[in-house]
Amino acid sequence: MNVKIEPAILSYAVDGRLYSPAFDDVYFQPEDGVAESSYVFLQHNNLEERFKGLRAGDVFRIAECGFGSGLNFLLTLDLWQRMAAKGARLYYLSFEKHPVQKTDMKKIHACWPDYAAVSQALLAQHPAAVKGFHRLDFGSAQLQLCLGDITEMLPQIKTQIDAWYLDGFAPAKNPAMWREGLFRHMARLSVQGSTVSTFTAAGAVKRGLQAAGFYVEKTRGYGKKRDMLTGTYQRDIPKTQTTGSAIVIGAGIAGASCAYALAARGMHVTVLEKAEEAGNAASGNPVGVVYPRLTAAVSAAGDFYTHAFCHTTRILARLENEKLWRNSSVLMLDGGDAAEAKRYAGMVKSTALPEEMLRPVDRKQATEIAGIPLASGGLYYPDAGLVAPREFCTSLLEAFPAQVTLRSGAAAEKIMRQDGVWHVLDAAGEILAEAEHLVLATGPSLTGFSETDFLPLRYVGGQISYLPENAASRKLKAVITQDGYFPPAVEGVHYTGATFEKLRAKAETHPVTEKGHRKNLTMLGGFLPAAFFDGVTPEDLQGRAGIRTSVPDHLPVVGKCPVAAQWLEDYAGLSYGQLTEKQIDLDKAEVHDGLYLCGAFGSHGMTSAPLAGEMIAAQICGDPLPVSEKVAAAIHPGRFILRALKRNQS
Ligand code: SAM
After folding, report:
1. Is the CB of 129 under 6 A from ligand 1?
2. Residue of minimum CA distance from atom 10 in ligand 1
3. Which residue in 421, 448, 451 sits closest to 433, CA to CA?
4. How many Cα atoms within 13 Å fall on the side-chain side of residue 157?
5. Which residue has a Cα nearest atom 1 of ligand 1?
6. Quick one: which of 131, 191, 312, 415 has the fewest CB in 10 Å?
7. SS3 string of 318-334?
8. pTM to 2 decimals?
9. Residue 560's beta-bridge partner residues?
10. How far is the CA of 239 from the centre of ligand 1 (A)?
11. Which of 11, 74, 98 has most ligand 1 atoms within 8 Å of CB, for mutation?
12. What would the pLDDT profile of 414-435 be if each residue is shown by its tens digit?
């Protein structure tokens, strides 16, 4: 399977129309593309009326194939911003197999000056051509770009769609897309009254939609086109709407990310934090490195970290706080080790990241990028960099002040569900908060509840050392990682490390020791110039230590909380070979209603937690997941129960 995506190759037809040589078809008419798109898609889905009819708390979801230049999206977003009621939310899902590159898109959008504002907002977040899901934010509107073939991606989507735009080139030019499967999945995701419109009037499309349950009409096409199709879904499937509020326990990067993603969807969120401020514990280091943790072969883990990285850097850019993010780039050195170099080559091959986001560099190139002499080459991540963790947590929590309430000094000891509401209590049995949805993002305390004590959480102590900048280290421009990491100085200090100490028992704190500093200096001395450490003595160093939590497969734990005892019963067949994991429908597995887990990020919380938060918010609000089905299964909190059963150890 090809993990990389091929961007669109564009050209212009003799009559000046934007043309795709791959599909031998045009994107739109140059002189009246805007009018045609408005007519076919916006008017024939009756969007103006429907947007006007929405109320606060309502969500309207549109799905499109394919995104192309984004013209339909620009027009829809513009209409939404003019018409929709305050507090209503638009979710626009669009599939694209060959994404138009940002430079091309910019040129195309320049033809539509009336839509300059929405175009600018889109271009500012436009993702690189990385296969998979990308979530972009436009205030009350959200765009999920699904880069890949719709035939592969649509089956993974679970949500409800109100209006469909079928715009994937003419059926005769692109028969692979207009298959029965497309109509079947449209039906699966439609509710009574969902509408569809398309520029084509092809009989096969009409029949396909009819067979799937749409009432279809042929109507006048735009301009010289005689006909087009519109349709309405007829079957009695009601639209469901998520309402209510949520509690998030923990105001580290995991909790802050969940609160941010929920608030972006209009939810009211109470965040309970036992410490006096947000971004404490593992999220309290002075700097954190944000870069993707890739794998040497194609894997769900590699896919998750790639998209987590793309998502986090997009959020950091959007938060627009210059103290928050420094795009210093990251150089991951191979230390001249042939086996490591081979592993890195595997990573380059198996990641969806394009060359502009990840490339191998030799020693000379690495030295040039870093600005200091290096002993080996490795991998270069130009978009990676340094984040200020505590500020990151605070910025996420403060981005929607009307929606998020942080209650610090509130130690949650017990959780309990009664009549569809979660109650969170303190040690004295006093209720701290109540809500329909509850997210546990409690770091090392994730297993501190009877609902979660099945998790095989591991505790790792980690210490960083604060090294004073000197004349040699001041030249450093990129974060260097090998066994540990060494970032450029922030206000005269390199916050570097880290030690890695597996602990036998659960712990919430870890001491800073001289031994820890010694370990860091030995490790860093292995790949950095000796001049960086001139005059440094471990006994004089300052530092910080904390606990990171992880699980045996080193992926995070994100999603609905299984009812462990029920899973052991329901899936006991795994132990006897009577059942395979493939036969289990995770969507139907027994979970604690309204309870979600978000944790076990190891040392990658800054990169991973924002996407995890997005996933939990999507689950709570009924939006499409921002990760593939494979990734969702790989990070599912219930996976350990299934594995234990398979090993026959339960
Ligand atoms: N709606 C677009 C706009 O507003 O600019 C124009 C869409 S253009 C006519 C058709 C798009 O569908 C192309 O960008 C093409 O790459 C995409 N496409 C074609 N087949 C596809 C498939 N199987 N999966 C996803 N996208 C596909």
Report:
1. no
2. 168
3. 421
4. 32
5. 67
6. 191
7. HHCCCCCEECCCEEEEC
8. 0.96
9. 596
10. 28
11. 98
12. 999 999 999 999 999 999 999 9
